[in-house]
Amino acid sequence: MSRSYDCADDQRRREGIADAASTVRRGELVVLPTDTVYGIGADAFSPSAVADLLKAKGRGRDMPPPVLVGSVRAAHALIEDLGTRGQDLIEEFWPGPLTIVCAATPSLSWDLGDTMGTVAVRMPMHPVALELLKEVGPMAVSSANLSGRPAATTAADAAEQLGESVGVYLDGGPCADDTPSTIVDLTYAVPRVLRSGAISIDRLRAVCGTVIGESKSWRRPEGTRRRAETEESPTAPSTAEEAAPGADGDTAPAAGADASGTGTPAAPGTGTAATPAASATPEATATPEAAAVPDAPATPDVPAAPEAASGAPDTPAAAPETAARPDPAPAEPAPRPETGRPGTD
User: Fold this and answer.
1) pLDDT at 276
2) Given pLDDT bands bounded at 50, 70 and 90, which one contains residue 245?
3) Beta partners for 158?
């Protein structure tokens, strides 16, 4: 049976943190408050627990959850490459509503879903969440709601949707601000916003200089994204889960299928629709007046060209116009399967 703890009471908070920590270590699920919305969490290094989390929400492996950490040091252990601006963003906005998508450390023994080698990481600014994370280590955390339903902003909302699939509910009161975290992809040379949120692009640019804004035409799955073949040529998205925040409110973009790498629709093999061959000009028939004179035959190796018969077309039939090539779409990141639209929190 689920247990609920009112964290406004110091004694109940201590009991709740202890119970939640034990529950996470047993591979079960907990609901915890964050600085954005309530999250449903599991041990990030327990594949069965992560699978239970996705099942409780009603979503698949193509939308892997983000990972919340209790310290910057814990984040560094999960990330192989922060890119050129990752550390600057961490120093400026953590703890807080910024999720960064990076290349994951390849040696980690975990299974968050179809992450394609990336991970979405955040350090929340909420005392209850930080206390639990420091007790149990990194947790896979997604918004506490059923897929397609609004994200929970109170523990009661979460319990109404998730019920007995969760072992412990930590009640930190109503969320002060339910604006989701901003998700920034650092797997390219230039930081790229996958989901707009609590931190504006102007604040990001004040730290990083150049930042590519969110594409409005697609959304990504929740927690991670596929790594590009080249950092300089991000592929164009084909969905949106990657891709925009889903109905859950915790995704940004997943993540989706591979794109061509240029963002320009193309016919197979060329990128431009093939031009049909021009129709052959009808052979002209000779008129009686133009017949060869018997005593002056044409030179064998240079046959006389027959004149066009009356009514023959003056010019060859026009070749069909080449199919119009669509205007190139701006280069955008390919959708990835959720870290997934990196999710919420």
Assistant:
1) 42
2) very low
3) none
The number of angstroms, rounded, from the C-alpha of 108 to the middle of its chain's C-alpha atoms is: 22
Instruction: Evaluate if residue 157 carries a pLDDT over 80.
Output: yes
**Please, what sign has the CA dihedral across residues 267, 269, 273, 276?**
negative
Question: Per residue in 256-275, pLDDT tens?
Answer: 333 333 343 443 444 444 44
The pLDDT of residue 300 is above 60: no
3-state secondary structure of 88: helix
Measure the CA angle with vertex 107, ends 84 and 187; round to 5°: 25
- At residue 57, the pLDDT reads 97
Q: Hey, is 238 helix, strand or coil? A: coil
Nearest to 76 by CA among 92, 97, 100: 100
| Parallel/antiparallel/unpaired status of strands 139-143 and 39-43 | antiparallel
**CATH code, 161:** 3.90.870.10
Instruction: List, for residues 165-174, the tens digit of each pLDDT value.
Output: 999 999 999 9
Asked whether the beta carbons of 83 and 187 are under 8 A apart, the reply is: yes
118-122 and 98-104 strand pairing? antiparallel
Residue 35 lies in a domain: yes
Element (H, E) at 185: strand 182-185
pLDDT at 232 over 70: no
C-alpha distances out from residue 306 to 253, 283, 287, 298, 312, Å: 68, 9, 8, 12, 12
Q: Does a structural domain hold residue 324?
A: no
Residues 6+ apart with CB under 8 A from 29: 23, 40, 41, 42, 49, 52, 53, 56, 162, 165, 166, 167
Q: Which residues are within 8 A (CB) of 234 and not within 5 positions of it... i.e. 6 or more apart?
A: 188, 192, 228, 331, 332, 333, 334
Residue 66 lies in a domain: yes
Residue numbers of the domain that contains 143? 3-77+118-171
In whole angstroms, how far apart are CA 132 and each of 2, 20, 38, 90, 163? 18, 8, 14, 20, 21
* 156 lies in some domain: yes
Eight-class DSSP state of 339 = B
- Specify the DSSP class assigned to residue 227: P
